[in-house]
Amino acid sequence: MSEQSKHTALYTQHEAHGASFTDFGGWQMPLKYRSELEEHHTVRKAAGLFDLSHMGEVLVSGPQAGEFLNYALVGNLAIIAVGKAKYSLICNEAGGVIDDLITYRLAEDTFLVVPNASNADVVAEELRQRSKGFDVAVEDQSEATALIAVQGPTAEAVLLDLARPEDAEAVRGLKYYAAVELELAGLPVLLARTGYTGEDGFEIFIGSNLAVRLWDEALRVGAVHGLLPCGLAARDSLRLEAGMPLYGHELGLDTNPFEAGLGPVVSTKKTDDFVGRSVLEPLKAVEPARRLVGLRAVGRRSARAGYDVVVDGTRVGTVTSGLPSPTLGYPVALAYLESQYAAPGTEVQVDLRGRPEPFTVIPTPFYRREKPAGTPQ
Fold it and tell me: What is the value of pTM for the model shown?
């Protein structure tokens, strides 16, 4: 365990529940508490409680906040309604992805930008640099903010038991990619309905000094709904089944949004100039040289990140993430392939340590939950 690794406000809670830890983005984070397979199925069948406090929170405020974010990010953030959120990217001048992030509009002139853990400091500094010339304030609130997620079919029931009766309708009516300020367990929070697992779920932003109280109360009231603490191992298998990218695997400075399948995130309709526009706008009209695709194994062996994808002995791509899908019962993977091999149904092979194994290109997400009538997502 690195002496430099940071601990979230919930570290002692993780220790008390028997977590095994891993370094992620410079943080000691729970990898798992029990078996990662059990935690994965818990989220698919009931609900999992995740500590995401290693992620960043950057508050952008001021009269030109919307205009500034339209310049700093590739999306049209200025049109977000108050109480709504938008997925976007921050790119460099060459069009490479610095990070993918979610931005919440908290008020007319106030936005909360949430970058990934490994990029939190980089994004905060990049936003500060890009804010020069705009009437805005950029404040990194990551250290003072904890982030807790409740994901799974019973997530809403858990939240309703934590909320005051007068806030029940606000919880039930919260739409996908929206947020509302209310109280949970008697504590002030910003409650968002997003997710990274393919299930219905909520993210709870709360002061770091209050996080332990909320975590403990969530586990207490959530017990009747099957809620269990879950670690990063299950989070990774869940997000892969849901076909969601992970920075450092599917996204990076050597990746542009179009080859990653995120072209719609780039708003060239907005009149604002934005960092990377001169490179990205022409790419919108051309076929990328490679594409991010889903792969399904024909056999039982799994592809792993970094393995070559070949056709007739010639390398045509690289696996970015792969594992046996606990939900589906067969191995799946994400990979960048030359565009001519990216169509669903294309048969390829993955070089599994010198032994080529057959895979088939299939659409993503690999897993899509059944949504009951009236479900917000």
Answer: 0.95
